[in-house]
Specification:
six-stranded mixed beta sheet; about 30% helix; elongated; binds calcium ion
């Protein structure tokens, strides 16, 4: 009996042996996990791809471009509102009582008492106004309630006096709306600018753009040089784009 059991056990061992049959090849040993070197390589690749993705997407530039889109939209909104005001008013006031803040002519030189209206911040006072003027000296004007549409906002037009009320609920200001040095505003400051003329009765609103896509010299999509205005330093809208700016590079 014992010898029969031993014989059977030997048969089982023989059957399970990897060398027992040509039809049962030896299975390759499976790895139990990643090696440290493999993990380091994977982590390095992920890090490189992440940096490349950030560089490609450039979130800061995307934000600048978004603000520029907002600026162009704001100026379009204000131009439309001013257009409605001009066509709905018998005696439009684009520059305060008797249009006293407007230039006499759109293309003429500035005179003392002319105003350039800024959406800028409180405390702003500047005698240079984005650079020197060729003649006369306009004054910078700001409002303590820039968004209001009652004539006391940063654009001095009484939209509220229209029959049916103001076509806009508030006056937009620049999404950044800051002036780096309140005593020396420069063209790169991110504020809106407005001016008007009496002959013809017209207005212009300018904004500064900051994204590489819309504002870089030579960019195929440069909005500042393709707006039909006379100042490459600004994005210009209005009914007469010669009120602000005296040339391609001189803002005022
Ligand atoms: Ca321009
Ligand atoms: Ca202009």
């Amino acid at each position: 009996m014992i010898s029969r059991i031993k014989k059977s056990w030997d048969s089982v061992k023989c059957f399970n042996s990897p060398h027992s049959s040509a039809s049962s090849p030896r299975q390759p040993t499976s790895p139990s996990g990643f090696t440290l070197l493999e993990l380091l390589i994977v982590v390095s690749i992920i890090a490189i791809l992440s940096v490349a993705l950030v560089l490609v997407l450039d979130p800061a530039e995307a934000l600048r471009k978004s603000r520029d889109s907002q600026r162009m939209s704001d100026l379009s909104t204000m131009k439309t509102a001013l257009g409605i005001y001009l066509t709905s008013t018998t005696t439009p006031l684009l520059g305060g009582a008797s249009n006293a803040g407007c230039k006499l002519t759109a293309t003429g030189a500035y005179a003392a008492g002319d105003l350039i209206y800024y959406s800028g911040v409180a405390g702003f006072s500047d005698l240079l106004l984005d650079g020197s003027v060729t003649s006369g000296q306009p004054t910078a004007q700001i409002s303590s309630t820039p968004a209001t549409t009652d004539g006391l906002g940063w654009i001095p037009v009484p939209f509220d006096n229209l029959i049916g009320g103001s076509p806009i609920s508030n006056l937009p200001v620049d999404p950044v709306n800051t002036i780096a040095s309140a005593s020396n505003v420069v063209s790169t400051d991110l504020v809106y600018r407005y001016a008007c003329s009496i002959t013809p009765l017209a207005f212009e609103i300018d904004a500064q753009l900051e994204s590489a896509a819309y504002a870089t010299t030579g960019s195929a999509d440069n909005k500042k040089t393709t707006d039909g205005g006379n100042a490459d330093l600004y994005y210009e809208v209005g009914t007469n784009l010669k009120i602000l700016g005296t040339g391609a590079s001189v803002p005022f």
